Amino acid sequence: MEIAARRNDKVLSEEAIEEAIKQAYPGLRVRGSLMNVPIAEYMRIRREHSSIDALEHGVKQAVKNLLALMQEHGKISRVEYDTAINSISADAVYMDANMKRVGVMVILGKDYASMKDLYHEGISVDKLLVINNIGSNSSNGAVFVSIDKYKIADLIYFSQRYSKKEITDIDVEKALLLARSITLH
């Protein structure tokens, strides 16, 4: 309330609440976050990615940045972005450590029935990884990885830091752990 009054806000805005949390609890982090996302950053990410389209775009960019980091550190090779796999558009295709061709798709807000037939005979990848937010099992050769709102925040927070070149050696280790948690590595 005091911060909103200082800012001459008539109503208590999210920015005022965010500022109050930063001042009252400067070291507060999201519990269970691999990237140690500050609570204020988590709130900002949730606000900026409130629509499913913005959220999907943010996660796609985060996965691409995570793959770029993995390639920089020799964990994967030959990454191609926004590639067609037969008739399906994949967000990325890369070669893993075992020289298997892996396709990655980020599909948020869709039900399992609309995604279950993505992988079919004759598809030109050894493994298709589908990252979603609804929880599905693996089927037809596709591996479905469900991510919750905290994992989404980890991904977007990493992506923003990576894009700004603010990644430290400790962040690299955490990012590689994040990649492993969504089966990219």
What's a quick, concise take on this entry?
This protein has 185 residues and is of the alpha/beta class. It contains 7 helices and 5 strands, in the order ααααβββαββαα. It folds into 2 domains: 2-47, no CATH class; 52-181, 3-Layer(aba) Sandwich (Trna Endonuclease, Chain: A, domain 1), CATH 3.40.1350.
Q: What does this protein structure show overall?
A:
The chain is globular, with a radius of gyration of 19 Å. It contains seven helices and five strands, in the order ααααβββαββαα. It has helices at about 1-5, 15-25, 40-50, 50-70, 110-115, 150-165, 170-180, and strands spanning about 75-85, 90-95, 100-105, 125-130, 140-145. A hairpin with a 5-residue loop joins β2 and β3. The model has no long low-confidence stretch (mean pLDDT about 85). It is of the alpha/beta class and about 180 residues long. Helices cover about 45% and strands about 20% of the residues. A five-stranded mixed sheet has the order 1-2-3-4-5, with helices on one face. The protein has two domains: about 1-45, no CATH class; about 50-180, 3-Layer(aba) Sandwich (Trna Endonuclease, Chain: A, domain 1), CATH 3.40.1350.
